[in-house]
Design a protein that fits this description.
By secondary structure, the chain is of the alpha/beta class. GO terms for molecular function: CoA-transferase activity.
């Protein structure tokens, strides 16, 4: 089975449809599947539910899909840094389901592991727990959270072999590995593609069985969301 596709548009052909749920890896602008997001934008699909830690910024990441109003609902942890998101949400044009960050990560991991629900202390006694089952364990209250799955996961990896075994680089790993396991179809954009067997098995983070399609990146542009520097001290 050939998993290599010439570009992001080809890799998403026949997969995208209106109203689908998409998991999008990344944290801020780190490790986001930029080429795949742009291909989704070009496709024009709409009414999307997107599961992602955050919604990018106004002119990058998922912010591009907010500009074109292709996203109907976000399931996220943090949505600051994006004025477009704020305007659409306050105008009632965008639905948001907030999750504590660890809860969001565990909901995705649970979905990939076939676990329908779990209990956590995070959010007990807050709006997060409203409408959810609360149960006592060991003298403490825990709120039940459900696992998350998606129709499509788009992820960014540093290296892949032709069988789809993925290696991530440093903090760009973030949400990508758990999302890769929690969707019906996972498409990975990768910076380096090598032949099967060239990656040390101990270095593989996402096994290729989870990855259906691979997009080798020709140009990789990695933006810094908030550049913080200090003045150089004179010698």
């Amino acid at each position: 089975m050939n998993k290599i596709y010439p570009d992001a548009v080809a890799a998403l052909a026949g997969v995208l449809r209106d109203g689908m749920t998409i998991m999008s890896g990344g944290f801020g602008l780190c490790g986001i599947p930029t080429a795949l997001i742009e291909a989704i934008r070009q496709s024009g699909v709409k009414d999307l539910t997107v599961v992602s830690n955050n919604a990018g910024i106004d002119d990058a990441g998922l912010g591009l899909l907010l500009q074109t109003r292709q996203i109907r609902k976000m399931i996220s942890s943090y949505v600051g840094e994006n004025a477009t998101f704020a305007r659409q949400y306050l105008a009632g044009e965008l639905e948001i389901e907030f999750n504590p960050q660890g809860t969001l990560a565990e909901r995705i991991r649970a979905g990939g592991a076939g676990i329908p629900a779990f209990f956590t202390r995070t959010g007990v006694g807050t709006q997060i727990a409203e409408g959810k089952e609360v149960r006592g364990f060991g003298g403490q209250d825990y709120v039940m959270e459900t696992g998350l799955r998606a129709d499509l996961a788009i992820v960014h990896a540093w290296k892949s072999d032709t069988e789809g075994n993925l290696v991530y680089r440093k903090t760009a790993r973030n949400f990508n590995p758990v999302m890769a396991t929690a969707a019906e179809v996972t498409v990975a954009e990768v910076e380096i593609v090598v032949d099967a067997g060239e990656i040390d098995p101990d270095h593989i983070i996402t096994p290729g069985i989870f990855v259906k399609r691979i997009v080798p990146l020709v140009n990789v542009h990695k933006r810094i969301e908030q550049r913080t520097v200090r003045k150089r001290v004179a010698a």
